[in-house]
Amino acid sequence: MSSDLPGRARPSLTPPAFASPLAQPALSQGAPIPSPTALPLEVPVAPRAGRVAPLWLFGVLVIVLVLLVSYFLSALGAASSIVGAILALVPLVGVVVAVRIIDRWEPEPTGLLVLAAAWGAIAAVGIALAVDFAITAVIGNDGSVLREAFSVVVQAPIVEELGKGVGVLLIFLVARRAFDGPVDGIVYGALVGAGFAFTENIQYFAISFIEGGVADASVTFFIRGILSPFAHVMFTAVTGFAVGLAARRGASNGSILGAWVLGMMGAIVLHAIWNGSAMFGDFFALYLVLQVPLFVLFVIGVIALRREEARLTRRRLGEYAEAGWFTVQEADMLATPAGRKAGLAWAKSLRGDRSDIMMGFIRDATALAAARQRSVTGRDPHSAAEEHALLARTAAARAALFAL
């Protein structure tokens, strides 16, 4: 762990000398880094304020959930709803696994991830249904092609992205300290979109099963569950990206609204194009020439953002290495995927298999780098206390790794 591989040059801790489009201004020098000799007798607990989901939000979601379940059972019946839910679980599991891979570098609090998915599956769907009922009550629905086009290409994208976007904004407002940048925004937005798609798929799959049995349900499942499980995920991830980028640049609660609106506009446009291609064009042709390239660009963008996260982690952990908390080799290991993999393999080879300790060491060190970044940009009043707690935890984990 503390020595380089023979014949290979150790990567420098100095970040590349180029301006990153995702960089944020350094508004302060951050809290002074203490000496490693000043270790506390007990490992302190990092402050949780601004990193947890309020319980009242889950209470509201439970109430809305009861209303949604009642509506689905009444409109679709119990048997069809169960079939729809089982089929809808398949794409949901795939999407959640993909999002967790994106979130692996610096995992977000579990409670906030659950809140994001639950908001999409419950609150956003409830908002969309309520607005749809209200619009129908005001302007009616004569079944004409024009009315259908308005509903599919205009109404649905605006209403649904607004309902989902509110969830992204709410997570930022109640847990701003867990909203560090674009990757976090994509993770939260993607889970909101995944939750929404899950509940929407229940309805689509159940209706197909009622109207055409297994054959129709299979076709619908292929289109929505196999070809396009990431559609809603990508739409709302655009909103999350915009909010996360503004957060990284130190936006206030007021100025974040501009980024949120801009992100939602992007999500609405993508959603409208997707719905329009299904209604007016050759869906499969447009899927190949438009949606597949968009998905590829989305993946490339996520990879680029992950590299930016690694760059920031290396920069901030380099400061702790200079202060003596880590060796330079350890900072390198913590700041690269390959180094983390090698570190876990080394820890597994130790007496008693200490890979769990190494995983905690990596997790806390990454969180330490993120806390330091918030401190340097002056946007987190709790960052100094969090740095202190995480330094103590990483020091304790490091000592446990090297214990005889």
Q: What can you tell me about this protein's structure?
A:
The protein has 404 residues and is mostly helical. 74% of the residues lie in helices and 0% in strands. It has two domains: 55-281, no CATH class; 311-402, no CATH class. The chain contains twelve helices and no strands. The chain starts with 54 loop residues before the first helix and ends with a helix.
Number of helices: 12
Tell me the structural class. mainly alpha
Fraction in helix: over 70%
CA radius of gyration: 24 Å
Number of strands: 0
Which spans have pLDDT < 50 for at least 5 consecutive residues? 1-24
- Quote the beta fraction: under 5%
Mean pLDDT: 85
N-to-C series of helices and strands: HHHHHHHHHHHH
Compute the separation of the termini in Å: 15 Å
What gross morphology would you assign?
Answer: elongated
How many domains? The number is 2
Main β-sheet description: none
Short structural summary:
The chain has 12 helices and no strands.
List keywords for this structure.
disordered N terminus; 12 helices; mainly alpha; 404 residues; 0% strand
Secondary structure topology:
Elements: H1 55-76, H2 78-102, H3 110-139, H4 145-174, H5 182-227, H6 231-248, H7 256-280, H8 283-323, H9 328-334, H10 337-349, H11 355-376, H12 383-402
Helix pairs in contact: 1-2, 1-3, 2-5, 3-4, 3-5, 4-5, 4-6, 4-7, 5-6, 6-7, 7-8, 8-9, 8-11, 10-11, 11-12
